[in-house]
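DM from R.C. (forwarded with permission)

"hey, sorry to bug you on a friday — could you get me a structure for this? deadline for the figure draft is monday and I only need the backbone to look sensible"
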Amino acid sequence: MTRKAQEGNDVSGIEGKHCVLTGGAGSIGLASARQLLARGATVFLVDRDPALLDAARQSLVADGYGARIGSAAADVSNARQTRDYLAQAVARAGPIDFLFCNAGINGAIVSVTDYPDALFDAVMAVNVRGTFLALKHGLPQMRDGGSVLVTSSVMGVTADPGVSAYATSKHALIGLVRVVAKEAAARGIRVNALAPGPVGNAFQDDIERRLSQVVGRDATRMLDEAIPLHRHAQPDEIARMVVFLASADSSFSTGSVFMADGGMHI
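My reply, with the result:
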């Protein structure tokens, strides 16, 4: 199906919606932006690294979406920068319909007794505080009836040795989602969590390179053996779940954790 055909056949209410995505330069953020744009949305990308953000934006411009893309480099854990990127997004395209809190870092793979204090704080700052700030300052900028999606992880519902900061942050996000889903329900705003398993991207490659050193075997193969579908996800597969949760197709879902992990958690 061509891009124009996709836009012409949008039946889920994505067309014309204003979508703000943090972690927009990563593979899941970029794949989600591309699929939302293909369905007629306007997208505002936020990422910490200006060079990666510009590269992500240019890849979407090359696809013909330049008129519907905005962007801002920001540290999501900083309250002022959070208010600034939200203000820029609203100034560019009006109130927000879909807020995707996707920014995150993975931290170290080391026992809790050896985990660096500063790194634990950094993971919590980006993953938890960054999402808290996006919700605190973003919800007042949203239209009633909108949708919020927070990226948790399979590590938000399970646990493995060595990832105390990451797993703690991802569990915390699910608690935050459940609270805010109840608070935002009066405005018809749905708030859900997305919990991907291993994805074939640079973020996961970094984890698996370090994990291989810890366990003394190929971590990618080890994880594939642990996933009932016996493979990693592709970013586009996760992005399709993002589109579903942004759209009216998920209109009666809120406060829920949507797994996209190939069955890894079961």
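R.C.: lifesaver. The radius of gyration is 18 Å.
me: no worries. Residues 200 and 234 are 6 Å apart (CA to CA).
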